[in-house]
Structure formats: structure tokens, C-alpha cells
Amino acid sequence: MDNQMTRRQGRENAFLLAFAQTFGELPLEQALEDNRAYDDERPVDDFGASLLRAYYDHSAEVDDQIRAHLRGWTMERIPRVTITVLRLAIAEMLYGAEHKPGVAINEAVELVKKYGAEEDYQFVNGLLGSVARESGLADEETGAQEAPAQL
């Protein structure tokens, strides 16, 4: 990597690798190693790798958070892009080193706007806002609206 990438780019590259991982069974560390060796266009930096590890280390808890905030939906019905964004954002909010839920929520909304279905950003914003509030992480900076988590 030539220059240090922005946090936004680090999140996006981590998302792209996490999304690719939903199609295969490659262990995370091998996927990270392969990414760094072969993907000059979208390398996952240390920040992105820490987000991925936070999710993989706490995947059961993260998925439990998602299930707890779904209203009339199952995880299996959520589009793959959206569930991947949710998983990384919740891992960042609850287990990441920086503990900036507002940033994690806003970045997740931007990712799902870029890669997801047209209206999924509202669902992501509402669900992540609920997780932040119920986890005691919400403040004026979260940007999350009081919206039910429905697609």
C-alpha cells in the first residue's frame, strides 16, 4: 500500500472482503493474507482487518444483535450486502477500538447506499440506531433516526 488510506476506504475494502467471504469458506486470516498479496486495487489495511476480526471473533453476538432488532423479518431474508454491512457496523460499534457509533452508523449507511438496494439504507440506519441506543452507545452524534427496523 503506497499511502495510508482513509478510514472510509478501509471500511469499504473490509466490507468488500467480508462480502466475498459470504460466498466461500476461506478462513479469515488466509483471506486477509491473499488480499494483501494479490489485491492491489482494494487492499485491506490494519484498520479494516481489525473490523473483520472484531466481527469474526464476535459473530454469534453480532448476529444475535441483528436478530433482536428485526421486526417481522429473519436474517435469511435480508440481502447479502445489507447483512454484511450490518455485521461490520455492529462489530465496530460494540467491539471496535474507537467506539464511535455515530461514525460506524453513518459509514454503514453510505456503504449500503453505494452497494445495496435503493431503500436499504433506511433499514440499516434504523437497526443500527436501535442497537446503539439499547447498548448505551447512542448520543446526539449517531445520526440514527427513530425508525423501526423493517425492510
Distance between the termini: 38 Å
Question: What does the main sheet amount to?
Answer: none
CATH superfamily: NusB-like
Second-tier CATH architecture: Orthogonal Bundle
Quickly give the structural class.
Answer: mainly alpha
The arrangement of helices and strands along the chain is: HHHHHHH
Q: What's the alpha carbon Rg, rounded to whole Å?
A: 15 Å
Question: What is the count of structural domains?
Answer: 1
Overall geometry comes to globular
DSSP, total strands: 0
Poorly predicted ranges: 140-151
Helix content: 55-70%
Tally of contiguous helical segments: 7
Average pLDDT for all residues: 89
Pfam families: NusB
Keywords: RNA-binding, Transcription, Transcription antitermination, Transcription regulation
Domain NusB/RsmB/TIM44: 11-133
Family: Belongs to the NusB family.
Kindly summarize this structure in a few lines.
The protein is mainly alpha-helical and 151 residues long. The chain is 62% helix and 0% strand. It is globular and about 40 Å long.
